[in-house]
Amino acid sequence: MARYIGPKTRISRKFGEAIFGPDKILAKRNFPPGQHGVNKRKKVSEYGAQLAEKQKAKYTYGVLEKQFRNLFEEASRRKGVTGEVLLQLLESRLDNIVFRLGMAPTRAAARQLVSHCHIVVDGKVVNIPSYLVKPGQIVGVREKAKSLETICDSLAGFNHGKYKWLEWDNASMAGKYAYMPERADIPENIKEQSIVELYSK
What we know:
The chain contains 9 helices and 5 strands; from the N terminus they run αααααααβββαββα. With 201 residues, it is an alpha+beta fold.
């Protein structure tokens, strides 16, 4: 159950984006961390830029290096544009879908819900955050967990229409993963082609 547990605001400031969710400190200090962060204007090499994109994707989806490499290799074996397929696989992770459906405010919180057996896939409890959900499968809240305050608070007022590839049913507190999203539909600011070029070296 490897996961990143270090300082999140520091990582967000490094990339200049709230990749872990809303961040009050980032809003006030939107520059790299460290003593010289404000005035840092370091020229980034091509390799450095590609590495940064990979790191950003890993932190955004909460994936460590080995898992990310395995997903890339899986994406390269599948039909289609490798970079787009990689993002589709990351979007298909159970913890990400729980987050996208509004059951949790962040991916880290979604991961915890999955790990604590609060989430079901097609009616069966799945406690593996990295589980790849297939199009057509139903992801929902376990009956015992439907009254959990964290889930209810997160779902309150959530706009379930913003992700076209997910269909939400409020009565059953479950959502259907209708199809894999197109790249244009995925809102994450990631240059996936840079990741492909990095791994191709």
